[in-house]
């Protein structure tokens, strides 16, 4: 369950937006520690959009901790996403593509066409699979194992991964972040 708080988090995390005021990433949500946010302010890389009530002080300086910053230079999101285990799991909704299990501690990835049969480690040949299904399928194709793949493996765009990431909201959000995010939430009393 997601919490939306009116009080600043203990670590004063700061939401980072692109120059178009969209989050750089939804999953994981693009945040920085307060130290990184203040450094970026001093280096004039970001504009402060919102602040916490908490002040950060040094012997010669004080400022309120940023809660939301926006990059001054736009970072293009059109680059292809990196092929990583996490991104494969995100593309597949953290769900086994054979049986539909959502047991995260059992999740692995599987070569649809086994490597022993020339299958490569690519977006188009890897799916998320639970360990029992991966073991059951073994070195066979899904057709040979009579284990159809729920949805075909494909290379996602960054926008598709971000859309998928919106399905998994973080456990904590600060109310100052809500105008920039796309989740239906309720504020804590």
From TrEMBL:
Pfam families hit by this protein: HNH
Protein name: HNH endonuclease
Keyword Hydrolase (UniProt): yes
MF-aspect GO terms: endonuclease activity; nucleic acid binding; zinc ion binding
Source organism of this protein record: Glycocaulis alkaliphilus
Coiled coil: none
InterPro entries referenced in this protein's UniProt entry, alphabetically: HNH, HNH_nuc, NA-targeting_endonuclease
Keywords, ordered alphabetically: Endonuclease, Hydrolase, Nuclease
Statement: the UniProt record of this protein carries the keyword ATP-binding: no
């Amino acid at each position: 369950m997601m919490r939306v708080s009116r009080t600043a988090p203990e670590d004063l995390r700061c939401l980072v937006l692109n120059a178009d005021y969209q989050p750089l990433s939804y999953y994981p949500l693009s945040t920085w520690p307060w130290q990184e946010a203040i450094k970026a302010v001093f280096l004039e890389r970001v504009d402060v959009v919102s602040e916490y009530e908490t002040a950060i002080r040094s012997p010669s300086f004080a400022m309120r901790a940023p809660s939301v910053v926006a990059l001054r230079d736009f970072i293009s999101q059109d680059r292809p996403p990196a092929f990583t285990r996490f991104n494969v799991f995100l593309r597949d909704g953290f769900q086994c593509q054979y049986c539909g299990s959502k047991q995260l501690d059992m999740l692995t990835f599987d070569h649809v066409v086994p490597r022993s049969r020339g299958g490569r480690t690519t977006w188009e040949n890897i799916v998320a699979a639970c360990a029992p299904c991966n073991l059951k399928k073994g070195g066979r194709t899904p057709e040979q194992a009579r284990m159809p793949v729920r949805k075909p493996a494909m290379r996602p765009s960054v926008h598709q991964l971000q859309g998928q990431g919106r399905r998994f909201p973080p456990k904590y959000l600060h109310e100052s972040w809500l105008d920039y995010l796309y989740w239906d939430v309720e504020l804590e009393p």
